[in-house]
Amino acid sequence: MYKVKVYVTLRENVLDPQGTAVKGALHSLSYCEVQDVRIGKFMELVIEKSERDIEELVREMCEKLLANTVIEDYRYDIEEVVVQ
Amino acid sequence: MKFAVIVFPGSNCDVDMYHAIKDELGEEVEYVWHTADSLDAFDAILLPGGFSYGDYLRSGAIARFSNVMKAIQKAAGEGKPILGVCNGFQILLEAGLLPGAMRRNNSLKFICRPVTLSVENNETMFTSLYEQGEVLTIPIAHGEGNYYCDEETLQKLVDNRQIIFRYHDENPNGSLENIAGIMNENGNVLGMMPHPERAVDALLGSADGLKLFQSIVKYWRVKHVVTS
């Protein structure tokens, strides 16, 4: 069994209106050190072992559905978990 | 001429679309559920606005994999007119039938009010009854209508005259180059954020959307009805 964490974020050159709003809010709370805020999505997938290579499988899912690669980047962590 | 209004779980402008075709345009129309296998019986396909699959993950991302989308891909390939409005536009983008993607509105607000649009290309099956540059009043209602594509795609859209509508007086959502509606290269798939089906009678505040549907009928009649 694998536990896969997928992080989807807007590409760097794509304006992130939510991030900009949150940065403004942090500044108004006087956290003026904050240079930039980017908001993304976090997804946790539990995937059972199959014949497919797990990385290939996760990449495929990201490209097909989990991220829209026109505006979003994705990265993932794969952790193998032992079922008791 | 027979229109299909595709209904996804969460579509909410399907009834407006049906009303526009049946009562205002006077053409045949049927609701088609998202599980349908074939659209062969229809001459034009309408993807209405709403919140398909609750807009979970991204607007249109899940609807794009509904069963009916295979039939829509096929109809698109056959050159049938396909119009996606609002969430329908988002679905067409996610499905790759139109280039680009939608971001949240710059203001982060859901905006629901009439806006003005200019007709950027009146030589299409969707806009032939408008004047080039004609300014229309049509309502918008969306939280994610901030159109984006990369520079190369934008250049193609400009070169092929695929930008069909631009916001006129002000850009409500921050979309690239004030884009409000685009078409595919073949000219038979149109996606737009404003709702022409909500502007088909003066009683609704504007009838400026009606000519879009009439243009589709005109195109179809010229192509399919032999005059004696």
From TrEMBL, chain A:
The enzyme's first-digit EC class, named in words, is ligase
Keywords attached to this Swiss-Prot or TrEMBL record, sorted alphabetically, are: ATP-binding, Cytoplasm, Ligase, Nucleotide-binding, Purine biosynthesis
Involved pathway(s): Purine metabolism; IMP biosynthesis via de novo pathway; 5-amino-1-(5-phospho-D-ribosyl)imidazole from N(2)-formyl-N(1)-(5-phospho-D-ribosyl)glycinamide: step 1/2
EC number(s) given by UniProt: 6.3.5.3
Catalyzed chemical reaction(s):
N(2)-formyl-N(1)-(5-phospho-beta-D-ribosyl)glycinamide + L-glutamine + ATP + H2O = 2-formamido-N(1)-(5-O-phospho-beta-D-ribosyl)acetamidine + L-glutamate + ADP + phosphate + H(+)
Q: Which SUPFAM superfamilies match?
A: PurS-like (SSF82697)
Q: Name one Pfam family in it.
A: PurS
State whether it acts alone or in a complex, and with which partners, per the record: Part of the FGAM synthase complex composed of 1 PurL, 1 PurQ and 2 PurS subunits.
Role description: Part of the phosphoribosylformylglycinamidine synthase complex involved in the purines biosynthetic pathway. Catalyzes the ATP-dependent conversion of formylglycinamide ribonucleotide (FGAR) and glutamine to yield formylglycinamidine ribonucleotide (FGAM) and glutamate. The FGAM synthase complex is composed of three subunits. PurQ produces an ammonia molecule by converting glutamine to glutamate. PurL transfers the ammonia molecule to FGAR to form FGAM in an ATP-dependent manner.
Listed name of the protein = Phosphoribosylformylglycinamidine synthase subunit PurS
- Organism expressing this protein natively: Anoxybacteroides amylolyticum
Q: Gene encoding this chain?
A: purS
TrEMBL record, chain B:
Which Pfam families does the UniProt entry name for this protein?
A: GATase_5
Q: Does the keyword Hydrolase apply?
A: yes
Question: CDD domains, per this entry?
Answer: GATase1_FGAR_AT
The molecular function terms in GO held by this entry are: ATP binding; glutaminase activity; phosphoribosylformylglycinamidine synthase activity
Q: Which residues form the active site?
A: C86, H195, E197
Superkingdom of origin organism: Bacteria
Main location group: cytoplasm
An example GO biological process term is: 'de novo' IMP biosynthetic process
Subcellular location field: Cytoplasm
InterPro entries found in the cross-reference section: Class_I_gatase-like (IPR029062), PRibForGlyAmidine_synth_PurQ (IPR010075)
Which pathway does the protein contribute to? Answer: Purine metabolism; IMP biosynthesis via de novo pathway; 5-amino-1-(5-phospho-D-ribosyl)imidazole from N(2)-formyl-N(1)-(5-phospho-D-ribosyl)glycinamide: step 1/2
Identify the keywords attached in UniProt to this record, alphabetized.
ATP-binding, Cytoplasm, Glutamine amidotransferase, Hydrolase, Ligase, Nucleotide-binding, Purine biosynthesis
EC numbers on record:
6.3.5.3, 3.5.1.2
Q: Which HAMAP family match?
A: PurQ
What interactions and quaternary structure are annotated? Part of the FGAM synthase complex composed of 1 PurL, 1 PurQ and 2 PurS subunits.
**Could you tell me which NCBIfam families the record lists for this protein?**
FGAM_synth_I, PRK03619.1
* Function as written in the Swiss-Prot or TrEMBL entry: Part of the phosphoribosylformylglycinamidine synthase complex involved in the purines biosynthetic pathway. Catalyzes the ATP-dependent conversion of formylglycinamide ribonucleotide (FGAR) and glutamine to yield formylglycinamidine ribonucleotide (FGAM) and glutamate. The FGAM synthase complex is composed of three subunits. PurQ produces an ammonia molecule by converting glutamine to glutamate. PurL transfers the ammonia molecule to FGAR to form FGAM in an ATP-dependent manner.
This protein's name? Phosphoribosylformylglycinamidine synthase subunit PurQ
Q: Which gene encodes it?
A: purQ
